[in-house]
Amino acid sequence: MRKYKKKQTSIKNELLKFSRAFRTKHLVLFTILFIGIFIYKKIFILLFFIFLNWFILYMKRGYGIKSPFEVITFATFMSAYVYGPIEGLIVSGSSLVSISITGRIKFDKILTNTILFLIAFIAPYFRGINVALAGIGMLIFRYILDFILNFLILKDSDYFRKIPTRAINFFFWIFFYSSFGEIFVNLMKV
Length: 190
Prior knowledge:
The radius of gyration is 24 Å and the shape is globular. The protein is built from seven helices and no strands. It is mostly helical. The chain has one domain (42-189).
C-alpha cells in the first residue's frame, strides 16, 4: 500500500491566493461603483442630501442636538441650483417625509417646509449669478419668510430669544456659501 502524501502548502501561499482573489473582487466592485457614480452622479448626490436631511432630523429627535435648519436649506438650494426645481423638491420633500415619519408634525414645521419648496422653485432662476451671492440671497429670503411666518402669522413669543443663535447661524452660512459654494457646484457638475 502506498500512502498518498498531501501536498503541503505553506500558509503564506494560501494567504497570497486569498489576498489576490480578495483584491481582484474589490477592484472590480470599486470600478463598477466608480463608473456608476459618474454615470448616475445626480442620483448619488440627491441620495446623499436626502440622507443628510434624515440624519439631521434624527439627531434632533433622538439626541436633542439642534443642528441648524440651514443645512437642509443648503441641500435644497444646491440641488435646485445645479440640477433643477424637481430635484430640489425631492430633497425638500424628503425633509417633510422624515418629519412625518418621526411623528412630530406641527403646523409651523409644515410652513417652514413650504419655504423649502419655494427655495426649490426659485433657486434655478439664479443660475446666472455666482453661487455665493445666490446662496446668500436665498438665505436672506428664508430668514425674511421665517420671520413673517413665525412672528407675524404664528405669533411665536420665543422668536426674539432665538435671534442671537440665528445671527450666528446666518454669518456661518454666509461664510460657508462664499467659501465652499463654488466647490460644491463644481463637484456636482463633474
